[in-house]
Automatic annotation (TrEMBL):
Taxonomic lineage of the native organism: Bacteria, environmental samples
GO MF annotations, alphabetized: 2 iron, 2 sulfur cluster binding; dioxygenase activity
Keyword annotations: Dioxygenase, Oxidoreductase
Transmembrane regions listed in the UniProt entry: none
InterPro entries attached to this UniProt entry: Rng_hydr_dOase-A (IPR001663)
Protein name: Benzoate-1,2-dioxygenase large subunit
């Protein structure tokens, strides 16, 4: 159904669920109280008393605009993953991921 009710759990026996799991709707989905979109990104809140999305986004809306406006056709998110192997420790990846000031010259 589309009510959010949990209908079935995969392999419930032996999966380690406590006895109280899924009793009286404890794991049904909660209805989203407030839903808005901005430039194709979807946002939901369980709290109905929140400020409008654009106000909540504040300066972050400018970053979303910059990303989406890079192409006249807009932004398209494709499914998939990127994987690679590099010779280095975990710090190398972390530090290079934070190195935004070289992006314009790469």
């Amino acid at each position: 159904t589309n009510s959010g009710k949990l209908l079935k759990v995969k392999s419930p026996k032996g999966a380690g669920y406590p006895e109280c799991f899924n009793k009286e709707g404890s794991h049904d989905l909660t209805k989203i109280a407030r839903f808005e979109s901005y430039r194709g990104f979807l946002f939901g809140s369980l709290n109905p008393d929140v400020v409008p999305l654009v106000e909540h986004l504040g300066e972050a809306a400018k970053i979303i605009d910059l990303i989406v406006d890079q192409s006249p056709e807009g932004l398209e998110i494709l499914r998939g993953a990127s994987t690679y192997v590099y010779d280095g420790n975990w710090k190398l990846q972390s530090e290079n991921g934070a190195d935004g000031y070289h992006v314009t010259s790469v």
